[in-house]
Write a structure and sequence with these properties.
About 25% of the residues lie in helices and about 30% in strands. It is an alpha+beta fold. The two termini are about 20 Å apart. GO terms for molecular function: dioxygenase activity.
Length: about 290
Amino acid sequence: MQIIPNPGGVGARVTGIDLAAPLEEGDFRTLLRALAHHGVLCFPDQSLEAPELSRFGARFGELEVNVANLFHAPDHPEVMILSNMKEGGKPIGLNDAGQGWHTDMSYSKEIALANVLHAKKVPLRDGQPLGDTQFRDMHAAYEDLPTEVKHRLEGKVAIHDFNKFWEMMRARPGSARAPLTPEQRAKKPPVPQPIFRVHPVTGRRVLYCNPGYAMHIEGMDKEESDAMLAFLFHHQDQEKYLYSHRWTPGDVLMWDNISTTHNAVADYGPEEHRFILRVQVMATLDYAALAA
């Protein structure tokens, strides 16, 4: 197995490993450390079906099963289908493109360690792939914060709310989403998250505050909180923190949901087909001990 860092500082390419085979203990530990260090890992030229993708993801933690997800692989509710394709006029997958910058599960008390996506079909136009997935490095974003901001926010939490993201999606042109019902909101109540989090593998601080879900900072009035969140979101929106992954069929892409934020680019049309299998790994293991 070879791990080849990307030249921009975020992400790495991993070759010489077949993810359809059971993952050996040494390779698992190596990949866990690489994931935390690089933020994003691309495994090219893979061929996995739902059971193999599920087995690979489950080595890193418990897999989320989204009870509202109607688009999953047969007999594998933990394996979501991301697609803009239809059969008989009905969608066969969730079209996740254009959701804006966010960190999966930051609206939940139980946070996510990683996402693992496997591209079966990638949209093309004039021979060029579309639908990049973009990432920002929150290790570096924290390190570059002004010292005064670090001191001011040390120990503080931001409230993350699933409804913020839902309402942003409802406001998009053509959206057919209804507002969340009181019952749905009760199942996804706002939760506090530390603005600065210590990564369980690297031991370094990360900026764990994303524009998709963070609503306000506890202990600040609205004007002060809004100004600080605007500063943090503007700060992390710098080119030097960005890595944009251009998909190739066969790619398995795994990213760290603690040390990155991500965005799926919506630059393809309904006839430019995309089909991706996805699992989400919750942070349920003692990663510091496993990576030691």
